[in-house]
Amino acid sequence: MRPFWALIRKEVHESRWTLVLSTLALFGLGWLFVYVTSLNEAEIVRQLGSDSGDIGGRIRFLRSLGIEEEPRSVALIMASWNHPFILIVISVWAIGRGSGAVAAEIERGTLDLILSRPVARWVYLTAHICVAVAGLAILGLALMGGAAMALRYNVLRQPPGAWTLLQPAINLAALGLPIYGYTLLASAVDHVRRRPASVGAVLTLAGFIAWVIALIPVLRDTWWRPWLERVSIFKAYNPVELVTKGQTLGVNLAILGSLGAACITLAFLAFALRDLPANG
């Protein structure tokens, strides 16, 4: 197992700054969203209970986020967890690690040197996958940790517990699995990093656009909307519904985990069967 741990150390060393900066960014956002919720919660509740103002518009806005007319504190926090910046951080980590697993090493001319030592291909790829998946878990926990820390210094009407915050954090980490999986699969059959990175970015962006279009209220009655939702992995990440209904975590994890595992399995097969170019 010594080559395996050597590869783990190598991958951690190469990706440490990306992971550290991403972790700090998500921790800060977790804190910020709780702070903003503490400032806005009383005003939102006051408007919902008032006879004046644009109450209908406020209610429609909250319902579009999946929040009921009298929202719980955690629902308001989770509405912020859909922020595109959070999804970008997870996607950048997944695409970066996936595209760098095989294609980048071939492009740098270092893969044949690594495999010339007593390192099996499956050991090499497993080390990459372990670091990538661990990074996704750390990012999800960083967002949760920032929110949990902020709860100690901000007052909410109904402060959420640790398990309530952990569920959407797990769901967020799982969202990165299929993104990493299909990027890794593209990397396993290519020899330059830019193409797998482009494949990962295009597929992720297409899924996000499909998800956004499916949420547009005027398109809810169209016949193709359900199909548009089904092709987007972002449909399986809904933190508001998760904390309000609490019945979607298992389904979401099954969908995202199955897609990620299928792509990773195909990547193993492609990498094991392909011919690797030698250094010129």
Describe the structure.
By secondary structure, the protein is mostly helical. It has one domain (2-273). It is built from twelve helices and no strands.
Descriptive terms for the model:
single chain; 280 residues; mainly alpha
Structure described in brief:
With 280 residues, the protein is mainly alpha-helical. 75% of the residues lie in helices and 0% in strands.
Distance between the termini: 30 Å
Question: Kindly state the mean pLDDT as a whole number?
Answer: 87
Tell me the Rg in angstroms: 21 Å
Instruction: Give me the secondary-structure category.
Output: mainly alpha
Label the overall shape. globular
List unreliable stretches of 5+ residues. Answer: none
Report on the biggest sheet: none
Can you count the beta strands? 0
Helix content: over 70%
The share of residues in extended strands comes to under 5%
Task: List SSEs in N-to-C order.
Answer: HHHHHHHHHHHH
User: Could you say how many structural domains there are in total?
Assistant: 1
Write the layout of secondary structure elements.
Elements: H1 2-48, H2 55-64, H3 73-80, H4 84-100, H5 103-108, H6 111-115, H7 121-151, H8 162-188, H9 194-214, H10 225-230, H11 239-245, H12 249-273
Helix pairs in contact: 1-3, 1-4, 1-7, 3-11, 4-7, 4-8, 4-9, 7-8, 7-12, 8-9, 8-11, 8-12
